[in-house]
Design goal:
Shape: globular
Radius of gyration: 50 Å
Number of helices: 52
Distance between the termini: 122 Å
Oligomer: single chain
Strand content: 25-35%
Strand order of the largest sheet: 1-2-3-5-4
Structural class: alpha+beta
Number of strands: 73
């Protein structure tokens, strides 16, 4: 039946609903996402089976209800199943996986191995080759976001609580439901490119037995549109249309033509079945049913499917009807139920078209009051956003927890606060969350994090490569090991624990790949400097923090945030030269750097560790490549492009790149801007000066003054050429607060101090000079040693020639440059630009009036040129009344080419000017018409002709006071200097004398050169009232601090709150006395402007737009203000001085400034004050909300603290004078909480104080700093003012003594306040060797000896750290006070304090009395010595004497009777209580230290045996000491260790344990069958003997037994001591080795011998365990020792382990040791064990990883020669040359030649040496090696020949002496007397020849 149903599906016609089912319809469709599993075609079957279902048992009904819920539920991870086919949309493309959006807000992941089989094969090939394949395209090329894909659920992984959906795009999985016979033309399939063939592509469509081919002509359109013109790659995903089917489906032809694919529709002829129906197919469907939740469709005549509300077309929602025909796309097909889901979204109805909307603009936004659209059980809820679109929230996101979910809150229309967390492209809906944790989360996605941002998180896991930090549920970041702290820590697990909260800073964030790197370096996290996150932010002189990422020979590489990095060259590493940076700095070190230069385009940056911001001289940086252009050379350049710095040009004819700064285009600053604006790409500039080489770039200059100086030779090249008195031309390099740095053409610079910048007083340097300005400087002083000089820029120092000549020269140069600008403008294409270029001063134009601007100037239009602006100021309107549209004539005065404005004049004198021949040097009167910065344009009074004359007389003449400035309309006297007008249309002239200037004519209104802000030129519209006059008026309005009055004559007056009453009651508002409309009589006391609100002096009653200040105070109305001396004029500063500190004033509240935290008050109308918040009250309630206590306008009585005359206000206080003296109580603000120390408090005016934890309260607290935080206000009492930082107290007994509060913990100022027997509370300060240090006051620390800490005996000192942490509050009793030495001895014992013991009884610790019996006498004596040493701080001789006596006593007791007695006591104690906890405590430490490996197996005795053993007393007495295994080893372990240490000290040096030399080694190549089993220890007892001995110990021993045990113990001690003292003693047992390694844990030799001991006993696992112990025990500083153990462990695994175990050990060793050494050692191990194949593979890996290390090449060469592979060795040498730096080539050749001598061909070795020495004849080291090799492998003739060659070389005498000496030694050993004499004669002749050369 099943097969028949598949082939002939039922249904087709619409069935009527059975009447029995009618009532159940609402229940069926109650779920929004109801999926009818048995659609229309299956309803008949359900009706027939209904009766059978009702008869099923309850259990079966429950199961069926569950299955129904599963069938009808929303698409979720629970409803998914493996093999389910879905349509998805690619959302993200990562390196190795795709993130795919699925319907209903789900996400899936496709791994790179699930694309297709061909792509997986390519990936495997790439992994095997370890090199990237050219024909393997990355996923980013194969897939693009938005692409629709057909996928199959491959697996559902449950990771913790969350499940992840893994998908597959492999056509074999997607299309496995198809068979070759089912393939029909017109079908739309998906496939991937399998291979590229000659005429097309083989496509993998996943149908077994079918080959699919895509011809070239069918993919051209796809390649052009989708693939950007490139050919298809293997693995590329395609939507294909079947065009032709051959051979019953054995072969198909495909097409990817987009128009055909988009129009493809599934039809009935294609014979689709429910089994092979594929997602993504577009079908024609008919609406069967319309519900509020979606539609039921029928398609392909027999199938039905569901469209939920999410996938309805938003434009047609609500307009669907039955029998309507629609186009739909299949979304998913359920494999078990064969139910189908479809979508009507238009974006899915054209196959192959990607989805364009992949993101939502509101992601991350928190939305308030979002209404519910609908709620659906077990599915979620929909919401309607403000833009009308729907959003969806799953049930899990509707509440914080499952228990807190309440469905009744989600009725339609209910409002909720939510956050947009994502966007589902498949549903075209935003996804919401109502979880409070998500709404309040600072970060939602990786996109919300930015480099440099500070984030908080919790430790998630600790790994070997770093720490994983959980920022949010969705965001996790990695803190690399390098960034766990400022310094590298070896054991991060000791500092950080899982779930610890940490504060990090983001280093890099890659949202696409979801990678987040952070740092925990405290300096970086807490840095206040700006983080550097891009190269564009790196401006010169910027200071910031970074960390050293690598150290090179040339300097350090410093890394910042977002992978920004820069280089610090050697010269910038510090003030002093650093030759070896690796010895001073380390990788990971946090450093503070200054940016020198930055090139954002090149991503390069130069940094400096020298943080001096004022570098007076900077040597010009050398260019990176040699250029033919020399400094001072004149060149022609061509403009390439404009930048912010100026013009980038190329020097002709070689096109050398250079920079022409904008400020260097002209001597005139204004003209420089014009030239830079109008010069364009391709313009050529002639005669440009090469100024310097800066940072590898050539800097040019076009300043005529500098070029003239260079041509005339007035530019000293070196510092010695500068002489005082010289006049030099330069330019302003930089401006500082103390002066100006001037640079000259040679690159040298000097400083012009502020005092010699000008003959006028210099207030602000920038008012006089700007950077880049040309100046003339006079050398004052030269400091040749420091290469510094002082300059003067004063005109009186630099001006030599007549100012007329210099000023005229500057004017001519300026006008020539302006004319050059006009020429540039005329060559441009713009009509406006050409028109501006044609307009010259004096040109008469016909204009039309257009409009009048706000400043009164007229605007004209020329009509023909759009955009042309012509302007005539009020002065130049000539008093004419013109109307818009009126035509008039005007004269051009000046053309502003930068603003494209033309200044014209309508004045009759200029329009009707007379043309007259002017004579040179004649004087004329003129009127100024226009002013520029460096020149002015005037008209001659007689003729109206326009003349230009200079305003400045010198390059340094740049500043004028306001009284010296010229004004438009002013008359001057000019001397004509040119008889004809210049190209600009102007005559040239100079001013004859400043004294001949006349004021502006009164008939016209003057016009300043540049109007200053705030200057009002309007005449007064209304008159002002005289001071002192009585006026009447009516109250217009009442404000909080003033009252506005309308006077009789229409003027406005103002009455301040201080001018209403003579005696103002505090707390009242005087302005409330007056009501609106009430008539008042007042006296005028001043004037106030409307603009500034400041009272005017009484002596200046007339001012513009003023308001009269009035007073209605009775005292003010009675007196005569005109005769009152108090009304005399005074400045604001003088008024403030009338209020001295301490004076009480009445002020009126104006407002409370929340940001600045002060009250703003008014004393009078023109005097204001500020009251800091801390000075408003001593009440915390008032300080918390001062705005509630003080109302606006309220009268307050305040005390003047001090005037701020510079800021124009008084500082006041409401709590009296602000004096921070001893005993004073004041309010402060906490600025810092210092853990375990106290608080730092800030007072007003910047005073800082410190509060100790002992002064926070009268009663100490366990957490004293809890409740304190920055910005908290506290009441403090000043204890001391001796130091700059005040000493404060917050004790209530100090701050509020009236309260008389109970003082539980009195203050302790010094040791005098302490008495013996007194009980005091305090805090644990530290735990040290001598005891517990206990702080009882800020300055006093007492000591508690360990015997006075607890009544228990502790063998484990770590318990002190646990139960006595630093800062713990405890009660202690004073035992003894040593006031001379300032020592206090305390006790924590319960008998002294009355408190419980520090350690709880639950620990089961033994009492100290019992513990003392188990201690030896030696520690007691040592403790006594330590006590004497500590207490005796007096005479050093006494201290030394006591120490000697103590040491003598110790030595006597070690060898005499007392020690034996003590040992007997310990032994008897152990025999007395063998089964107690005390014995277990003593045995545990030995087990921890490694005794477990050698200890014997012991079992606990049952009670029956224990009772039976009591009878056998004699048996115990007869046991020998060797047989008694009851704990002697534990007893004497500590004593043995001490004796071992002493014996090692007494032994001579030759017998010390070696560190690196193995005296008696062992063979690693011993096989397992050669190893003998370990012999059992000789003292091992049987089980019965152990039981008898342990039970006998329970019985009381007789006196005779005790004596016998004493003798046996003494014998055993003597035997152990003799063995330890024997220098030839060798360890024989594991215990012996354990003792040795405990005494010398860093000796790798001992550990290797220990391993060999176990290997000889065939105990491989124990040998491994010993190696692991060694690696943990050896200090991290002993790198070589650790490496020895690693090598031994690798040897062990090579011989007795497997390949996998050896690989694991090797990988671990590489992580912990220097990798190169580990690789080389493993290669040697392989070679010695004859594993040559493994060795060759390892060497190949080394050549890739360490290709820059010559050692690797040499070792590999030796390996090849040993194997007889000479040719391979020769090829290896050639490869080495291409990889190694050139400086290493000679050494490598020398080493390979030596290897050839030893292992290869000697003749080849000689040839190699000869070739090298011919190229490097002076390499004496190579000669020396060559000689050694010839002596060893050659004949005597060859040796003498090479010596003869060497002694005839031209080398230094010292080296020649070396070779002569070697020659002589050789002849003495192998030659005769004649040959020896011959060598001596040759040496003598060499010396004589050298002497002759020296004498000549």
């Amino acid at each position: 039946m099943a097969s028949q149903e598949d082939s002939f599906p039922r249904g087709g016609t619409k069935k009527k609903v059975h009447p029995e089912k009618a009532p159940q319809q609402p229940i069926e469709h109650d779920n929004l996402f109801d999926i009818p599993t048995e659609e229309g075609s299956r309803k008949r079957k359900r009706n027939q089976e209904q009766a059978a279902k009702n008869k099923r048992p309850k259990a079966e009904k429950k199961e069926s209800s569950k299955s129904e819920a599963e069938k009808y539920g929303i698409l979720s991870i629970e409803t998914l199943s493996e093999g389910m086919r879905l349509l998805g949309c690619v959302k993200e493309v990562n390196n190795l996986e795709l993130v795919v959006s699925l319907p209903n807000g789900l996400w899936g992941y496709v791994q790179a191995t699930n694309i297709c089989d061909a792509y997986t094969k390519k990936l495997n090939e790439q992994v095997d080759l370890e090199e990237p394949l050219e024909d393997l395209a990355p996923l980013s090329r194969l897939f693009q976001p938005g692409m629709l894909v057909r996928c199959v659920v491959s697996s559902l992984n449950s990771a913790s609580k969350k499940k992840s959906i893994k998908l597959s795009l492999n056509p074999k999985d997607v299309n496995k439901v198809l068979s070759p016979g089912a393939l029909k033309p017109g079908m739309l399939l998906t496939g991937t490119v399998h291979s590229v063939e000659d005429h097309g592509y083989l496509v993998d469509i996943g149908v077994g037995g079918t080959k699919a081919f895509l011809p070239w002509q069918k993919d051209q359109e796809y390649v052009k549109q989708k693939n950007k013109g490139t050919k298809l790659h293997v693995g590329q995903y395609l939507n294909c249309l079947i065009e032709e089917v051959k051979g019953s489906g054995g072969s198909v032809h495909l097409s990817t033509i987009q128009s055909e694919v988009s129009a493809a529709v599934a039809t009935e002829e294609q014979n689709w079945t429910l089994d092979n129906l594929l997602p993504g197919l577009v079908v024609k469907a008919q609406v069967q049913k319309v519900t509020p939740h979606g539609l039921t469709l029928s398609f392909l005549s027999s199938f039905t499917g569901l469209v939920d509300f999410m996938h309805l077309d938003s434009k047609k929602t609500g307009h669907y009807f039955q029998t309507q025909m629609v186009r739909a796309c299949i979304l998913e097909v359920y494999p078990r139920t064969k139910s189908v889901r479809l979508t009507l979204h238009s974006s899915f109805l054209q196959a192959g078209r990607p989805i364009t909307r992949l993101c939502h603009h509101l992601i991350g936004a928190v939305l308030d009051d979002v209404p519910v659209q609908g709620f659906f059980a077990k599915a979620g809820a929909t919401f309607r956003l403000k833009d009308g679109s729907l959003a969806y929230a799953r049930t899990m996101h509707l509440s914080q927890t499952e228990k807190s979910f309440k469905p009744e809150k989600f009725k339609p229309g209910n409002m909720h606060k939510c956050r947009v967390i994502d966007f589902s492209p498949m549903d075209d809906m935003a996804l919401l969350s109502l979880k409070k944790s998500i709404i309040e989360a600072p970060f939602l996605r990786y996109h919300d994090l930015h480099p440099g941002q500070i984030v908080k998180g919790r430790v998630f896991a600790l790994r070997s490569y770093g720490m994983i930090v959980k920022v949010t549920e969705q965001i996790r970041g990695l803190v690399p090991t390098l960034h766990l702290a400022d310094v590298q820590i070896r054991h991060p697990q000791k500092k950080y624990h899982v779930k610890d909260e940490v504060k990090c800073r983001v280093l890099t964030c890659d949202p696409e790949n979801k990678k987040l790197l952070m740092t925990l370096k405290k300096t970086l996290v807490e840095s206040s400097l700006p983080p550097l996150t891009s190269y564009k932010e790196a401006k010169p002189e910027l200071q910031t923090h970074g960390f050293i990422s690598s150290i090179k020979d040339f300097g350090c590489i410093v890394k910042f945030y977002n992978d920004v990095r820069g280089v610090v060259l050697k010269k910038e590493l510090g003030a002093q030269p650093i030759s070896a940076p690796e010895e001073v700095f380390y990788v990971g070190q946090v450093v503070k750097v200054t940016v020198l230069t930055s090139e954002p385009e090149e991503e390069r940056m130069l940094l400096s560790f020298r943080l001096s911001s004022d570098k007076e001289t900077d040597d010009p940086a050398q260019s990176q490549k040699k250029a033919t252009v020399q400094i001072g050379q004149l060149v022609d350049v061509k403009v390439k492009k404009k930048t912010e710095k100026g013009l980038e040009v190329s020097i002709l004819p070689d096109n050398i790149h250079a920079l022409l700064p904008a400020t260097h285009l002209s001597d005139n600053v204004t003209n420089s801007q014009l030239l830079c604006y109008w010069l364009q790409e391709g313009d050529i500039l002639h005669k440009v000066l090469c100024l310097s080489h800066s940072d590898g770039h050539i800097v040019l200059c076009r300043k005529p003054a500098l070029i003239s100086a260079v041509e005339s030779g007035q530019d000293p090249k070196v510092f010695s050429e500068f002489q005082p008195g010289m006049l030099l031309t330069g330019f302003v390099k930089s401006i500082k607060a103390y002066g100006v740095f001037v640079q000259f053409p040679s690159g040298l610079s000097g400083l012009a101090p502020k005092s010699v910048l000008s003959d006028k007083f210099v207030t602000t340097i920038s008012d006089h000079f700007v950077e880049g300005q040309t100046v003339v400087a006079k050398v004052i002083n030269v400091y040749e040693e420091k290469e510094r000089m002082l300059l003067s820029l004063r005109l009186s120092d630099v001006s030599q020639e007549d100012t007329t000549v210099s000023s005229l020269t500057l004017l001519s140069q300026c006008l020539e440059e302006l004319q050059g600008v006009r020429i540039l403008m005329s060559s441009r294409d713009s009509v406006l630009t050409q028109t501006l270029a044609e307009m010259t001063p004096g040109l008469l134009v016909d204009l039309v009036v257009q409009d009048m601007s706000s400043d009164g100037s007229l605007m004209f239009s020329s009509g023909s040129v759009p955009g042309l602006v012509l302007r005539a100021s009020r002065y130049h309107q000539g008093g004419k009344a013109v109307d818009p549209g009126q035509r008039t004539k005007a004269v051009v005065l000046h053309v502003d080419t930068l603003k494209s404005e033309v200044h014209v004049s309508l004045r009759r004198e200029l329009v009707n000017r007379k043309a007259k021949q002017l004579k040179k040097d004649t004087e004329h009167r003129a009127v100024i018409e226009h002013l520029e910065k460096t020149f002015a344009i005037a008209s001659l009074v007689e003729t109206g002709q326009l003349v230009a004359f200079p305003v400045t007389s010198h390059l340094n003449d740049t500043f004028r006071f306001d009284s010296e400035k010229l004004q438009v309309g002013q008359r001057v006297s000019l001397i004509i200097k040119s008889t004809k007008p210049s190209d600009n249309g102007l005559f040239l002239a100079v001013e004859s004398s400043v004294k001949k200037r006349t004021p502006i004519l009164p008939s016209v209104e003057p016009e300043p050169a540049k109007e200053e802000p705030g200057v009002v030129s309007k005449p007064l519209e209304k008159p002002t009232l005289p001071i002192g006059e009585m006026v009447t008026g009516v109250v217009k309005s009442v404000k909080a601090t003033h009252v506005v009055v309308t006077l009789e004559n229409g003027l406005v007056g103002c009455i301040h709150a201080s001018q209403i009453l003579d005696a103002v009651p505090l707390g009242t508002q005087p302005t409330t006395k007056l009501k609106v409309g009430k008539p008042v009589t007042a006296r005028v006391i001043g004037q106030r402007t409307l603009l500034t609100h400041k009272s005017l002096p009484i002596s200046h009653p007339s001012s513009a737009q003023t308001v009269s200040e009035l007073s209605i105070r009775p005292s003010e109305l009675e007196k005569n203000i005109r005769n009152d001396p108090s009304t005399q004029s005074s400045s604001p500063t003088e008024k403030l001085k009338q209020y001295p500190p301490g004076q009480t004033v009445i002020c009126f509240m104006r407002k409370f400034n929340v940001i600045k935290k002060w009250l703003e008050v008014e004393i009078t109308s023109d005097i204001r004050g500020r009251i800091p918040q801390l000075l408003t009250s001593l009440s915390f309630k008032v300080l918390k909300h001062p705005e509630k206590k003080f109302k606006i306008g309220q009268a307050l009585s305040a005390t003047v603290v001090g005037p701020e005359s510079s800021k124009g206000f008084l500082t006041l206080s409401l709590v009296g004078p602000h004096k921070l003296e001893e005993g004073e109580v004041a309010m402060g603000r906490v600025v810092k909480v210092i853990p375990k120390e106290g608080l730092q408090v800030l007072f007003p005016f910047g005073t800082v104080g410190k509060v100790s934890i002992f002064h926070l309260s009268d009663s100490y607290l366990e957490a004293p700093l809890e409740g304190f935080h920055p910005e908290k206000i506290v009441r403090c009492c000043v204890l001391s003012t001796k130091d700059p930082v005040l000493t404060l107290s917050l004790r209530q007994s100090r701050t509020n003594p009236r309260m008389k509060s109970k003082i539980e913990d009195p203050e302790v100022h010094s040791i005098k306040d302490i008495k013996e027997g007194q009980c005091l509370r305090g805090y644990v300060d530290a735990i040290k060797k001598l005891g517990v240090y206990f702080r009882i006051s800020p300055t006093l620390v007492g000591r508690v000896k360990y015997c006075h800490v607890t009544k228990y005996f502790l063998s484990d000192r770590t318990l002190y750290q646990t139960y006595l942490p630093e800062g713990k509050l405890l009660l202690a009793k004073v035992l003894r006070v040593n006031r001379k030495q300032n020592l206090v001895y305390l006790s924590f014992l319960p008998k002294d304090t009355g408190k419980p013991d520090i350690f709880p009884e639950s620990l089961g610790l033994p009492l100290r009395d019992q513990g003392k019996e188990m201690l030896s006498s030696q520690p007691k004596k040592k403790q006594k010595v330590e006590e004497e040493k500590e207490e005796d701080h007096g005479d050093p001789r006494t201290k030394q004497k006591k120490r000697q006596e103590s040491e003598t006593n110790l030595k006597e007791e070690e060898c005499g009777e007392p020690k034996t007695k003590q040992k007997q006591k310990e032994q008897s104690q152990l025999h007395r209580e063998p089964g107690t906890k005390q014995k277990q405590e003593l045995q545990e430490p030995s087990v921890k230290q490694g005794e477990k490996l050698a200890s014997k197996g012991k079992r606990k005795m049952p009670e029956s045996e224990r009772e039976q053993e009591k009878v056998n007393k004699k048996k115990k007495q007869n046991l020998s000491p060797e047989e008694d295994d009851s704990g002697v080893e534990v007893n004497y372990k500590e004593e043995k260790e001490k004796r071992l240490k002493q014996s090692k000290k007494k032994q001579p040096k030759p017998t010390e344990v070696p560190r690196l030399q193995l005296s008696s080694g062992f063979a690693w190549d011993v096989s397992l069958d050669m190893l003998a089993p370990a012999m059992p220890p000789r003292e091992e007892s049987s089980d019965s003997e152990e039981e008898e001995a342990s039970q006998a110990m329970l019985k009381k021993k007789s006196k005779k037994d005790k004596e016998l045990e004493k003798q046996q113990a003494e014998k055993e001690l003597l035997r152990i001591e003799a063995a330890l003292m024997d220098p030839s003693w060798q360890p024989e047992t594991a215990d012996d080795f354990d003792r040795l390694v405990l005494s010398s844990p860093n000796s790798s030799i001992l550990w290797l011998q220990y391993m060999a001991f176990h290997l000889h006993a065939t105990e491989i696992e124990k040998a491994r365990a010993v190696a692991e112990r060694a690696l943990k025990s050896i200090s991290f500083r002993e790198e070589q020792e650790k490496l020895n153990v690693w090598v031994a462990l690798m040897n062990l695994e090579n011989m007795y382990g497997s390949k996998e175990t050896l690989t694991k050990v090797f990988e671990r060793a590489v992580q912990y040791c220097e990798p190169l050494k580990v690789f080389l050692q493993l290669a040697d191990i392989y070679t010695k064990s004859e594993k040559y194949q493994a060795a060759e593979e390892l060497y190949s890996r080394m050549l890739k990883r360490f290709r820059q290390e010559k050692t690797v090449w040499i070792k590999y060469g030796a390996f090849l020669l040993q194997r007889g592979q000479a040719d391979a060795s020769h090829r290896l040498l050639q490869r080495a040359f291409s990889c190694l730096p050139q400086k290493e080539h000679v050494d490598v050749i020398s080493k390979f030649a030596q290897l050839e001598f030893h292992l290869g061909d000697a003749e080849r070795a000689k040839a190699m040496f000869e070739s090298t020495l011919s190229s490097y004849p002076k390499r004496t080291d190579v000669w020396s090696v060559y000689i050694d090799m010839i002596i060893k492998h050659g004949s005597q003739k060859e040796v003498r020949d090479i010596f003869e060659r060497v002694v005839h070389l031209s080398l230094a005498p010292k080296r020649m002496k070396f070779f002569f000496k070697r020659y002589l030694d050789y002849e003495k050993q192998h030659g005769t007397a004649e040959t020896v004499q011959a060598v001596k004669e040759k040496a003598l002749s060499y010396v004589e020849a050298k002497s002759a050369l020296t004498d000549s």
